[in-house]
Design a protein that fits this description.
Layout: H1 3-12, H2 15-41, H3 43-47, E1 49-50, E2 65-72, E3 75-82, E4 89-94, E5 98-99, H4 101-104, H5 108-114, E6 116-121, H6 136-150, E7 158-164, H7 166-178, E8 182-186, H8 192-199, H9 214-218, E9 225-230, H10 239-245, E10 251-256, H11 268-279
Parallel strand pairs: 1-5, 4-6, 4-7, 7-8, 8-9, 9-10
Antiparallel strand pairs: 2-3, 3-6
Length: 282
């Protein structure tokens, strides 16, 4: 249809059509704006799924596992510390977005055999930790405070920063500062914008208050990095690890056939490769 005819046809449409179109357009814009506002203000409820524990909860994990606390502005972070008599070093473990220390601190024997201490915190609101997460800057500062609380004990020893899922972005940022002897990122995401685009296309980056730029941090790490990803992971696709590997030439990528997002620890290929990586540090 010629442009002139199209213009004439549009002009011939009744005013009530244009009014209805305007109402629909404004309504759609209002719904979208409301959804983005809800995402902005309710982001913590989507990202973080803490499971609290009673204040009197007791961890029964062996005589060499000690419960401790890290004081941060406005909160106390609960932590568990596996301490060996003469460890080769320490694994500073940052867990995923759900659960608590009771559900995450489950493989102490692995670290005993490797002769590495293990230190793991619960973020604010998780387990017995107090308060709640309010910003990315706060979360990063809490992680650094937790590391600083134990760092003097491991002067001259091997330092391993380990992140799982949500914790991978935080681990990469800490490693970019510390340059530890090894960084292990299990089921990592490139950044929160890329992960959001996988599941919720159309959400603008400006709405994300937790960008968690694993990619930018990884590019600043100059020491060894091990990336591990299950090739059946449907929550964080293996492509995230593949793109991350390109940001750090020294990074090694282990893809575990058949492994998903939450079951990597059940696969001997992962445990064997991780054990090998630790043994090379001793």
């Amino acid at each position: 249809m010629p442009a002139r005819q199209v213009t004439e046809t549009l002009r011939a449409l009744p005013r009530r059509f244009w009014r209805a179109l305007l109402v629909i357009t404004l309504g759609a814009a209002a719904v979208y704006t409301s959804a983005m506002a809800a995402l902005w203000f309710g982001q913590e409820r989507l990202l973080f799924l803490p499971v609290p524990l009673p204040a009197d909860h007791r961890f029964v994990l062996g005589a060499d596992v000690h419960e401790t606390w890290v004081d941060v502005p406005g909160a106390r972070l609960n932590a568990l510390h596996l301490r060996r008599p003469a460890p080769a070093g320490v694994v500073f473990f940052l867990h995923g977005n759900a659960g608590n220390l009771q559900s995450w601190f489950v493989n102490a024997d692995f670290y005993r055999r490797a002769n590495f201490d293990l230190f793991m915190i619960d973020y604010r609101g998780y387990g017995k930790s107090t308060s709640r997460i309010e910003s990315e800057a706060q979360l990063i500062a809490d992680v650094r405070a937790a590391w600083d609380s134990i760092a003097p004990q491991y002067a001259g020893k091997k330092r391993v920063v380990y992140g799982r899922s949500l914790g991978t972005g935080l681990a990469a940022m800490l490693s970019a500062e510390l340059q530890p002897e090894l960084t292990v990122l299990v089921s990592p995401y490139e950044n929160m914008q890329a992960l959001t685009a996988d599941h919720y296309p159309g959400v603008p980056a400006a709405v994300l208050r937790y960008p968690l730029r694993t990619d930018e941090a990884l590019a600043r790490i100059k020491t060894p990095v091990l990336l591990v990803h299950g090739d059946a992971d449907t929550l964080i696709a293996p492509a995230h690890s593949e793109r991350l590997q390109k940001r750090a030439p020294q990074a090694k990528l282990l893809r575990v056939p058949g492994a998903g997002h939450n079951d990597l620890q059940l696969f001997d290929q992962y445990l064997g490769r991780y054990s090998q990586a630790l043994s090379t540090l001793r």
